[in-house]
Amino acid sequence: RRNNDELVATWGNLVNRTLQSAYKNFKAVPEPGALTEADTELLAAIAHGFETVGSLIEAARFKNALQEVMRLAGLGNQYVTEQAPWTLLESDRERAGTILYVSLKAIDSLKMLLTPFLPFSSQRLHELLGYEGTIAGPLEFRTVTEDGGAEHVVLTGDYEGWIGRWEPSELPAGQALLEPVPLFAKLDADKVVADELKRMEDDADRDDAA
């Protein structure tokens, strides 16, 4: 329960305040100025997360993978708090836009890292960021047995039509954003996880009936 609360609160907070500020003041992904060391450090840390989280998922260490994404989302929240773009909108609008550009790229990358765990809210964020198409289809965990009898849990799905890529964000400056809505209606971790699982089960039932 504590881990779910932390994930939803940390992730929901980062997404909501980033999107709200970017949409209210720019309506699109801002054109960045020169990146500072703090900017590049955050983007590099999240980019490295694709290797780390991917390896953990491949090893069926799903809890550890989710904890790593949570840690990266925490770095994103820390960055936004420390950089405080809302305080710069009048005095240094270019810098404020750069901070929001970095923050948007961060949540775009984190969206992909969270897709195996929260596919439906990740798709919602995908659309709020101005993308079209389906980031990923239904996913499920399956137990596979090797020739020698060893069993492994793998994450699999129907990959046809996916446009998401397991790589850092390439969100372009100037891309129009949709008017933000809360990623989670209420930061109720149990309900969020239950809703995601129910949607996955409903998709599986539809596939079985097809």
Model description:
This protein is mostly helical. It has a single domain (2-164, 171-209), classed as Orthogonal Bundle (Isoleucyl-tRNA Synthetase, Domain 1), CATH 1.10.730. It is 58% helix and 7% strand. The chain contains six helices and two strands, in the order H-H-H-H-H-E-E-H. It has helices spanning 2-26, 37-58, 62-83, 93-114, 119-128, 189-209, and strands spanning 139-145, 151-157. The protein has a two-stranded antiparallel ribbon with strand order 1-2. A hairpin with a 5-residue loop joins strand 1 (139-145) and strand 2. The protein is elongated and about 65 Å long. The protein starts with a helix and ends with a helix. The relative contact order is 0.18.
What would the average pLDDT be, to the nearest integer? 85
CATH superfamily: Isoleucyl-tRNA Synthetase, Domain 1
Whole-number total of structural domains = 1
| Percent of residues in beta strands | 5-15%
Spatial sequence of strands, sheet with the most strands: 1-2
List the helices and strands and how they pair.
Layout: H1 2-26, H2 37-58, H3 62-83, H4 93-114, H5 119-128, E1 139-145, E2 151-157, H6 189-209
Antiparallel strand pairs: 1-2
Main traits of this protein?
210 residues; elongated; 58% helix; 6 helices; 2 strands; mainly alpha; two-stranded antiparallel sheet; Isoleucyl-tRNA Synthetase, Domain 1
Q: How would you concisely characterize the structure shown here?
A:
This protein has 210 residues and is mainly alpha-helical. It has 6 helices and 2 strands, in the order H-H-H-H-H-E-E-H.
